[in-house]
Amino acid sequence: MLLAALAVAPASAEERRNYYDDPFVQVTSGLPGCPVPEGPLMTEAEARMQFHVRSERGLRCYLEGRCRLSSSYMYDKDIIARVQKAVDFNKGFKDTSVWALGQRRWVFLKGCVRSKEQSRALEKLVGGIDEVERVVNELRVTP
């Protein structure tokens, strides 16, 4: 039993999960065959290493007067919910498969679109949402 427990311990220590509960949602699913991007997964050791950086980045926004909340990460769930609604409302993205990740008022767009124009339009749409500081476009064109 002890050997079995020791053999399992390293595997569970390397488990990757969303330690900071960063919102990561699929906002469209109309392009079959698009691989699911990895979300904000990390090991426990990686999460510990990022703790200080995330604390400092989150608070800096408030201290500089750019955020009304005490951490820029506190906006992310609401922002991603608004991204989902905006994309749902805009019918020009039904033939895409896109995921959105929110981290410190930045929105990372991942997945597949049909054209560069569609990619730029989606980036512009999300960039126009209130409280979004930056859009990182990681979309792939899949005709």
Notable traits:
single chain, 143 residues, alpha+beta, 4 helices, 4 strands, 41% helix, globular, disordered N terminus
Would you mind describing this structure in some detail?
The chain is of the alpha+beta class and 143 residues long. It has one domain (18-141). Helices cover 41% and strands 20% of the residues. The protein contains 4 helices and 4 strands. A 4-stranded mixed beta sheet has the order 1-2-3-4, covered by helices on one side. The relative contact order is 0.18.
Unreliable runs = 1-9
Helix amount: 40-55%
Q: State the secondary-structure class.
A: alpha+beta
Q: Rounded to an integer, what's the Rg over CA atoms?
A: 18 Å
Overall domain count: 1
Strand order of the largest sheet: 1-2-3-4
Oligomeric composition of the shown chains: single chain
List SSEs in N-to-C order.
HEHHEEHE
Kindly state the mean pLDDT as a whole number? 91
